[in-house]
Write a structure and sequence with these properties.
Layout: E1 2-9, H1 16-30, E2 34-41, H2 43-48, E3 54-56, H3 62-66, E4 73-77, H4 83-92, E5 95-99, E6 110-114, E7 130-134, E8 159-163, H5 172-183, E9 187-190, H6 199-208, E10 211-214, H7 218-225
Parallel strand pairs: 1-2, 1-4, 2-3, 4-5, 5-6, 6-7, 8-9, 8-10
């Protein structure tokens, strides 16, 4: 069974879509499927997918549709793809899986997966042929985050991690870290997710911390796992 996973990301828009699609890629591969990632992104995003079967392609149009066979599963994880693209994928593929965060579209027939904590409150429309998988139990996490030790809350905060994902173009994490080093006794570590850091290194940094200051996004769910 072939699975095409269409995703997007980079240094300006972030790596959350890329990392969760990599998690799906590994899960499909472990189940015996033949997954392939189709990435519209920059070199930094492609670097996160090193070792996976991946092609770089501006896929939101005829070139992406041409890659889909009638027996394929197609996963689409995008803030940019128009509704018509989803409809054409649903018409071509064996199954369309749409990853969503905020009820962005009225998706066509297939699976709609939203792993956000409050996803069930979004009141998705009922539609023929659409099945919804909603809530944090459906959040795709990289395998490294599936086995994290259970930790007790520390009596006193000593180590603080600061990370705003991979699209911290303004250097906010470093600026906040510098401020806290000057004005508190905390041991501060800043982390730029996706910049030559694999999941194992990110996990180690999270496990070292007593608390974390972060933006919303995929990093939040990896932190929750730790």
């Amino acid at each position: 069974m072939k699975v095409l996973i269409f995703t997007e990301g980079g240094g300006k828009s972030g790596f959350g879509h890329v990392t969760r699609c990599l998690a799906l890629y590994r899960a499909f591969a472990s189940a015996g499927a033949r997954p392939e990632l189709v990435l519209d992104g920059d070199d930094a995003a492609a670097g996160l997918l090193r070792g996976a079967r991946c092609r770089s392609l501006s896929w939101r149009g005829p070139r992406g549709l041409a890659a889909i066979g009638a027996g394929d599963i197609a996963v689409v994880d995008s803030y940019k793809a128009p509704l018509d693209f989803y409809r054409q994928v649903a018409a071509r593929a064996r199954l369309l899986v749409s990853l969503d965060d905020c009820k962005l579209q009225c998706y066509p027939a297939g699976l709609v997966v939203n792993g956000a904590v409050a996803a069930a409150r979004l009141r998705y429309p009922r539609a023929a042929g659409v099945e919804y998988l909603l809530g944090a139990r459906y959040t795709p996490l990289r395998p490294e985050f599936s086995t994290c030790p259970r930790r007790a809350q520390p009596a006193k905060l000593r180590r603080v991690l600061i990370t705003f994902g991979g699209s911290d173009t303004g250097g906010l994490a470093d600026r906040l870290g510098e401020f806290l080093r000057k004005n508190t006794d905390f041991r501060i570590e800043t982390l730029r997710v996706g910049r030559r850091l694999g999941a194992a290194a990110v996990k180690r940094a999270m496990l070292r911390a007593d608390a974390c200051v972060t933006a919303c996004g995929q990093t939040t769910y990896e932190l929750a796992a730790c």
